Structure formats: structure tokens, C-alpha cells
From TrEMBL:
GO MF annotation list: inward rectifier potassium channel activity
Record's protein name: Inward rectifier potassium channel 16 isoform X2
Ranges where the record places region Disordered: 272-291
Stretch forming the signal peptide: none
Catalytic activity: K(+)(in) = K(+)(out)
Keyword hit for Membrane: yes
Record-annotated Potassium channel inwardly rectifying transmembrane domain positions: 41-95
Localization per Swiss-Prot or TrEMBL: Membrane
Membrane topology classification: Multi-pass membrane protein
GO biological process annotation, one example: potassium ion import across plasma membrane
Protein's gene: KCNJ16
Length: 340
């Protein structure tokens, strides 16, 4: 606007016309030049043109074609400026980036026993009074590998979640049960620590104020996975209400968990189950022999699962699926929270 305001006096002071116009045209041009000659008058004329307020005695006549061209250019420029300003304001209101910053993921993911199964767990919380409408959690295991031709490839494997559809009123612990379909099935404690993978977790939800879809995501690498831990309780039951202790969002305690993989644990449980089904030995000490046999089998299975230094041949054969002997690429932690 200031540029056009300074251009109008130049246009009127230095008109370029071929020849000499008649006297009445020259007089009209002089009057128009006197109206726009002062810098304040030129600025007001530029302001009235861009904001379409309406002209007073300052106006552009058909006798000055250069001034008409300047008015046209300024009108076009004003439309472009208004479009960018209004678009930026609407985009700022539509994508509330501050909303995604209130969704938090726990810094560590935990592996521990849950309902008799070895599970991978992490926690998601919403620290805003007005909560999200609905949300869907998705987890993928990302692994870099080298094919037969020596090229690097990226493989994705979805992790099946026990609770993928959640309502985030209170912090929720997301659980992935490590079963035979899980890519973590053959990995024990050592294998997880030495392996080269990344677990990418995504939370897609709908904001209650704008109704738009948002996406928050984070990831966990092997050094951010704690084996044999459990999250602390954040929900405290009072007499008339429930209280959420946000200070315990990241808190965890160390609990019992076997150091073997879920595959080895299932195999040893099957051995114990087959031992329990063994027919009793005939004789006077039948019941005593059966009890001793079951007790010895249980102790042997638990001891082999609890020993982290056990490196037997069978364990090595069962964990051949885990390519942790050679680290292809070292992945760093990613903590990104954005919106769709």
C-alpha cells in the first residue's frame, strides 16, 4: 500500500502524452494532480482504492491512463493479499496443533506378564479437560533388511492390539499380546536388546471442538523397551469420584517376567501340560511319585525361563528367526505429534 501511495504522485507529476491536449483537458489534469500531489493525499487515495471505502474529491479520471493502470494493479494485489491472510487464519483455526500436543505417549514400552501371557505394553494419555470423541490405535514393527541382491528393504508388520478402539477419558495402557502371529514371538530378552527394529505407534482421533481428524504418533526402539516391568496405577478410587494421578503416567515397577521368548514359554508350558497328563505309576507310592514329578517339572521349566544367561543349543535353534546378530541400521527415537 505504501508503494502504491508513493507511486501516485510520480504518475501525476510526470504524465506522458503525445502532443499538447486541449485547454479544458489540461485544466482538469492540473486539478487532479493537485489533489494527489501531496503524499498524504496519495496515501489516502491508495487506502481508499484497496479497501473500497469510496472516493471523495480524489479520483482518477480517464485522462490519465497510467493512473488507471495503477488502480487496477493495486485492486488485484489487494485481492491476493486478502486471500492469503484469510486462508492463513482459517488454516490456523482448522488445524489446532496445540490439541495434538496434549496427547502423550509413555517414554518407555514395557514387556511383562499379563493374564498369563507375555505382552508388550505402552500408555497413551490425554491431558486436556475436553477429551477426544473417539480414537483408534495402530502399531507397526518396522525392520530394515538386506535382500539377496544387497539392497536395503523396509518391511512392515502390523501388531495385533487387544484394545485398538479406545475412549481416552483416562490414560489407557495399550496391550499387544505376543503370540505365534506376533513378530516378537521368537525374541527373548537378549534378542530384543540386540535386535534392530522400531515399533511405530499411531493414534488417530477426532477433536471434540472442531470435529476434525488428528493424528499423533511416536515410536519405540529396543533401548526404550523395558523387560519385566509394569505400569503404575493412575486411577485412584475415592468415595464420591475417581482421581487420575498424572504423576504416575510414566511410572513403572519391576515385576516377575521370564527372560525367555514367548515361543519358548509356550513350548515349556506344553511340556508341563504333557507331564501333568502322564499316567500315574502303579505301586504304593503312586500319588507321591506323581506330585514329585509335577513339582520337578515345574521347577525345571521356571528355572530355565528365569535364567538370563542360558544359551543352550535348543534356545539358539528356536531364535534363528531373529536376525539380531548383525545390526543393519541404528534407529533413533522418533516422537512426532501432528494433525491430519
Amino acid at each position: 500500500m505504501s508503494y502504491y501511495g508513493s507511486s501516485y504522485p510520480i504518475v501525476n507529476v510526470n504524465p506522458k502524452y503525445p502532443g499538447y491536449p486541449p485547454e479544458h483537458i489540461l485544466a482538469e489534469k492540473r486539478r487532479a494532480r493537485r489533489r494527489l500531489l501531496h503524499k498524504d493525499g496519495a496515501f489516502l487515495f491508495s487506502l481508499e482504492t484497496q479497501t473500497t471505502i469510496g472516493y471523495g474529491y480524489r479520483c482518477v479520471t480517464e485522462e490519465c491512463s497510467v493512473a488507471v493502470l495503477m488502480v487496477i494493479l493495486q485492486s488485484i494485489l489487494s485481492c491476493i493479499i486478502n486471500t492469503f491472510i484469510i486462508g492463513a487464519a482459517l488454516a490456523k483455526m482448522a488445524t489446532a496443533r496445540k490439541r495434538a500436543q496434549t496427547i502423550r505417549f509413555s517414554y518407555f514400552a514395557l514387556i511383562g506378564m499379563r493374564d498369563g501371557k507375555l505382552c508388550l505394553m505402552w500408555r497413551i494419555g490425554d491431558f486436556r479437560p475436553n477429551h477426544v470423541v473417539e480414537g483408534t490405535v495402530r502399531a507397526q514393527l518396522l525392520r530394515y533388511a538386506e535382500d539377496s541382491e544387497g539392497r536395503m528393504t523396509m518391511a512392515f508388520k502390523d501388531l495385533k492390539l487387544v484394545n485398538d478402539q479406545i475412549i481416552l477419558v483416562t490414560p489407557v495402557t495399550i496391550v499387544h499380546e505376543i503370540d505365534h502371529e506376533s513378530p516378537l514371538y521368537a525374541l527373548d530378552r537378549k534378542a530384543v536388546a540386540k535386535d534392530n527394529f522400531e515399533i511405530l505407534v499411531t493414534f488417530i482421533y477426532t477433536g471434540d471442538s472442531t470435529g476434525t481428524s488428528h493424528q499423533s504418533r511416536s515410536s519405540y526402539v529396543p533401548r526404550e523397551i523395558l523387560w519385566g516391568h509394569r505400569f503404575n496405577d493412575v486411577l485412584e478410587v475415592k468415595r464420591k469420584y475417581y482421581k487420575v494421578n498424572c504423576l504416575q503416567f510414566e511410572g513403572s515397577v519391576e515385576v516377575y517376567a521370564p527372560f525367555c521368548s514367548a515361543k519358548q514359554l509356550d513350548w515349556k508350558d506344553q511340556q508341563l501340560h504333557n507331564t501333568d497328563k502322564a499316567p500315574p505309576v502303579r505301586g504304593s507310592g503312586t500319588s507321591d511319585t506323581t506330585v514329585r514329578r509335577r513339582s520337578f517339572s515345574a521347577v525345571a521349566i521356571v528355572s530355565s525361563c528365569e535364567n538370563p544367561e542360558e544359551t543352550t543349543t535348543s534356545t539358539t535353534d528356536e531364535c534363528k528367526e531373529a536376525p539380531y546378530q548383525k545390526a543393519v541400521l541404528t534407529l533413533n527415537r522418533i516422537s512426532v505429534e501432528s494433525q491430519m
